[in-house]
Specification:
By secondary structure, the chain is an alpha+beta fold. Helix content is 28%, strand content 19%.
Amino acid sequence: MEFDEITYQGPPIDDTVVLAQLPAVLRQVLAQVNGFIAYGGGLHIRGTCNTPAWHALDRVWHGERALHRAYGALLPTDIPFGQDAVGDQFILRDEAVYRLDGETGALTNLDRGLLDFFADVAADPIEVLGLRPLHQFRLEGGMLLPGQLLSVYPPFCTVEAAAGVTLRAVDADERLTFLAHFSAQIATANDGDRVRIVITDE
């Protein structure tokens, strides 16, 4: 299958330890191309490499920024093989693909295997990947570079977002850190609760 607007392809595989831990279907994909960014930043499939750090699968699976440490819905065995433009994660669990909402921590079973998920993406990337924010950003003159994600303010899960959001390109680590902190802070909130968002320079 083919994906459009490839803006990055991963380096040669140099993390064979992690590669050996992957299910056969994901190993076969990464053996052909060690991760990539498609749709102008709308889909990032991570690779089994040590650098660049933002592309390394092991870093968000087992390493210092392992997503299962930030999100209670994830298990250490869940494989965060990819993400979309705003930092929502695609997770492989028992050969099924799940979507993790970075803002809320909600985990949704897409009821698709990896190859079927890729076929769905190729057939309808706008819906499957939620590309409308990225399209808005690009219409406003923005460009998402490899290693960047879209910052969204106010967060999509808020009522205020219905009136429109501000989008900007930020370092991927910055975006994932914000999402993890935000998700943890609203974990006990109920629908309709008011939350206060404080932006710092940390």
